[in-house]
């Protein structure tokens, strides 16, 4: 059996489909619906600091601490923002 199947396989083109990120307001609305919590205070901190959804991905631990974001809240935000990672 000297079959060579590798050349017969269709080439699968990988597409990087990314959802365009929402505004910070929409992002926190989604979080509120998902977790049934009020994120207004945190949303306002992000707005004051002009942090958009993509910026969240690059926040360092000290940034979260400076914003005064609790670990559980950070985890919820990070779970939601992963949808927009390219």
Explain what the structure shows:
The protein has five helices and no strands. Helix content is 50%, strand content 0%. The protein has helices at 24-35, 40-48, 53-56, 61-67, 71-81. It has 86 residues and is mainly alpha-helical. The chain starts with 23 loop residues before the first helix and ends in a 5-residue tail after the last helix. The protein has one domain (22-84). InterPro entries: SAM/pointed_sf. It comes from Rhizophagus irregularis. This is SAM domain-containing protein.
SSE topology:
Elements lengths: L23 H12 L4 H9 L4 H4 L4 H7 L3 H11 L5
Quick structural overview:
Helix content is 50%, strand content 0%.
Give the tags:
86 residues; mainly alpha
Number of strands: 0
Characterize the largest beta sheet: strand count, sense, and whether it forms a barrel. none
Sequence stretches where pLDDT stays below 50 over 5 or more residues:
none
Strand content of the residues, in percent? under 5%
Give the overall form: globular
Question: What is the helical fraction, as a range of percent?
Answer: 40-55%
List the total number of helices. Answer: 5
Radius of gyration: 19 Å
Oligomer: single chain
Number of domains: 1
Assign the structural class, choosing from mainly alpha, mainly beta, alpha/beta, alpha+beta, or little secondary structure: mainly alpha
Please provide the ordered H/E string of secondary-structure elements.
HHHHH
**Head-to-tail CA distance between termini:** 43 Å
> What is the mean pLDDT?
86
